[in-house]
């Protein structure tokens, strides 16, 4: 009986520790914060918002609050000003974990605009 | 060619006009569909380029454009060029003129007509753009454009201007610096021109500087015979 209990206990512990380690990828959140909706909602729906906003912006010139640029402004790493530069960068971290390949950054800059401007003016 | 097209367009416009019924007092379906109050058909952005003030050898507009939009500045056939300086000469008189050439932002743009995906489009304020989310890189528009205004991105790019997304496999051209216009600015080339040869403004506003000027001085559209009604006009040609 004792053996059974300890076996179960160790099993539970190992499961929880496994879950704690990798269930959620650790991300470099940058400044972070919440300006649109709560985290869980954003995890599920950010792609729809971005897709809606992109058509509004390109086609109608409505440069709204929910732009990719604004997301990057807060979520770019404070170390390298980017959402895509490293494995744990804000966009890369989750997308790698979920195995969802995004092509946003083949055209869009992953850098915070203020940092990009600084870099350009220094050239 | 354009006569037939224009008549068909006019017919479609009339049909669309019938659809512009009121949703609520003071609110038309047209407004609902087209959003930005800045661009509800009232504004038409354009430029008046004074070829007499434009100095041969001066490249300020081109370099300003390259810097603003992150172009390499190369002039090889595979390099993107949104604006070029050209020098033309009347062989019979020997008179030489220098002028910048870029997308002429036509009212009836051939690039939009031929685009198979609807990526090439004209904004309500008259700016002709490529929606790169829809562009498949077929380059029909490049062939249709009589001004050779469009470029294709052949190589992967990095470190783009956050305001100007550009990428491999899509066609691009002068956007009239739409990101600046939407924030109340003016195109980088117009701002950079030291000879004040590029006047940017709203062609539909009778009180704008550009409207007053085209009312006074003789100006032409390039290849006006095509009936495209370009937004870029030239004086002193």
Describe the structure in your own words.
The complex is a heterodimer of chains A (123) and B (237). Chain A is mostly helical and 123 residues long. Chain A is 60% helix and 0% strand. Chain A starts with a helix and ends with a helix. Residues 15-19 of chain A have low confidence and may be disordered. Chain B is an alpha+beta fold and 237 residues long. Chain B contains eight helices and twelve strands. Chain B has helices at 2-19, 29-34, 60-69, 110-114, 140-144, 178-181, 188-192, 209-216; strands spanning 22-24, 27-28, 45-50, 83-89, 96-102, 120-122, 128-130, 151-152, 171-172, 198-202, 219-220, 232-235. In chain B, strand 1 and strand 2 form a beta hairpin. Chains A and B meet through helix 2 and helix 6 of A and loops of B.
Task: Supply database-style keywords.
heterodimer; A: 123 residues; mainly alpha; 6 helices; globular; B: 237 residues; alpha+beta; two-stranded antiparallel sheet; 26% helix
Question: Using only CA atoms, what is the Rg of chain A?
Answer: 20 Å
Question: Regarding quaternary structure, how should these chains be classified?
Answer: heterodimer
Order of helices and strands of chain A: HHHHHH
Which percent range describes the beta-strand content of chain A? under 5%
Return the CATH architecture of the largest domain in chain B: 2-Layer Sandwich
Q: Termini separation of chain B (Å)?
A: 26 Å
- Strand segment count of chain B: 12
The residue ranges of chain B in which pLDDT falls below 50 over 5 or more consecutive positions are 25-35
Lateral strand order in the biggest sheet of chain B: 10-3-12-11
**Could you say which overall geometry of chain A the principal axes of the C-alpha atoms support?**
globular
Counting structural domains of chain A, the number is 1
The Rg value of chain B, from CA coordinates, equals 18 Å
**What is the helix content of chain B?**
25-40%
Coarse shape of chain B: globular
The overall pLDDT average of chain B reads 89
Structural class of chain B: alpha+beta
| Residue windows where pLDDT falls under 50 for at least 5 positions of chain A | 15-19
Helix content of chain A: 55-70%
């Amino acid at each position: 009986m004792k053996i059974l209990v300890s076996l179960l206990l160790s099993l539970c512990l190992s499961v929880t520790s496994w879950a704690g380690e990798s269930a959620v990828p650790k991300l470099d959140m940058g400044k972070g914060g919440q300006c649109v909706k709560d985290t869980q909602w954003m995890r599920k729906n950010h792609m729809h918002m971005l897709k809606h906003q992109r058509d509004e912006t390109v086609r109608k010139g409505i440069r709204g609050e929910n732009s990719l640029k604004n997301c990057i402004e807060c979520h770019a790493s404070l170390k390298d000003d980017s959402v895509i530069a490293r494995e744990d960068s804000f966009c890369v971290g989750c997308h790698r974990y979920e195995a969802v390949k995004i092509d946003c950054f083949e055209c869009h800059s992953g850098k915070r605009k203020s940092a990009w401007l600084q870099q350009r003016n220094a050239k | 060619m354009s006569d037939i097209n224009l008549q068909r367009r006019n017919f479609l416009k009339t049909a669309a006009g019938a659809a512009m019924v009121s949703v609520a007092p003071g609110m038309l379906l047209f407004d609902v569909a087209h959003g930005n109050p800045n661009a509800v058909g009232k504004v038409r952005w354009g430029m008046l380029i004074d070829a007499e003030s434009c100095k041969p050898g001066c490249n300020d507009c081109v370099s300003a454009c390259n810097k603003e939009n992150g172009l390499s500045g190369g002039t090889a056939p595979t390099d993107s060029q949104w604006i070029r300086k050209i020098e033309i000469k009347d062989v019979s008189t020997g008179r030489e003129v220098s002028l910048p050439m870029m997308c002429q932002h036509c009212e009836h743009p051939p690039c939009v007509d031929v685009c198979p995906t609807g990526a090439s489009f004209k904004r309500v304020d008259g700016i002709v753009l490529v929606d790169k989310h829809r562009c498949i890189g077929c380059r029909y528009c490049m062939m249709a454009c009589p001004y050779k205004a469009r470029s294709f991105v052949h190589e992967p790019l990095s470190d783009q201007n956050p305001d100007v997304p550009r990428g491999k496999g899509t066609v691009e051209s002068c956007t009239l610096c739409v990101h600046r216009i939407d924030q109340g600015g003016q195109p980088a080339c117009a701002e950079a021109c030291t000879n004040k040869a590029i006047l940017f403004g709203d062609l539909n506003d009778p009180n704008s500087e550009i409207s007053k000027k085209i009312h006074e001085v003789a100006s032409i559209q390039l290849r006006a015979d095509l009936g495209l009604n370009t937004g870029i006009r030239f004086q002193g040609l």
